Automatic annotation (TrEMBL):
Membrane-spanning segments: 12-33, 39-57, 69-88
Entry keyword set: Cell membrane, Membrane, Transmembrane, Transmembrane helix
Domain DUF3817: start-end pairs: 6-93
Entry superkingdom: Bacteria
InterPro entries for the chain: DUF3817_TM
Phylogenetic lineage: Bacteria, Bacillati, Actinomycetota, Actinomycetes, Kitasatosporales
Membrane topology, from the record: Multi-pass membrane protein
Keyword Cell membrane listed: yes
Coiled coil feature spans: none
Listed PANTHER family: MEMBRANE PROTEIN (PTHR40077:SF2), MEMBRANE PROTEIN-RELATED (PTHR40077)
Species of the source: Streptomyces bambusae
Keyword RNA-binding attached: no
UniProt-recorded name of the protein: DUF3817 domain-containing protein
Localisation per UniProt entry: Cell membrane
């Protein structure tokens, strides 16, 4: 597996997670304080497009890492839960880096 597959996934995971947090703040402003309806619409559309790209990259990574269907779904769903994508991305990176071509093999005891 190439490093670029993991890099693309990581970039989209962070970007999607940040946009989801911004969207949550916009939703609080819109429904809690009755302001920012236009901004919420724009942010929600941007987040939706980024999330679709995230799903494609997560699927690509999961197929190349040969994950089970359940794990693939969990990684994809983590992009819909605020803050979850940050933690899942960290675990995915730790798991996938040894699979990347040219990575030094670590010895296990």
């Amino acid at each position: 597996m190439k490093r670029s597959v993991l890099t693309r996934y990581r970039a989209m995971a962070y970007l999607t997670a940040v946009m989801l947090l911004i969207l949550c703040a916009c939703m609080v402003a819109k429904y809690g304080f009755d302001t920012g309806a236009g901004l919420t619409l724009v942010v929600s559309q941007i987040h939706g497009v980024l999330f679709m790209v995230y799903l494609v990259f997560a699927f690509d990574l999961s197929s190349k890492a040969k994950w089970s269907f359940g794990k693939m779904i969990w990684v994809m769903v983590s992009g819909t839960i605020p803050l979850a994508a940050f933690f899942v991305e960290h675990k995915v990176r730790a798991e996938v880096e040894p699979l990347i071509e040219g990575s030094p093999v670590t010895a296990t005891a």
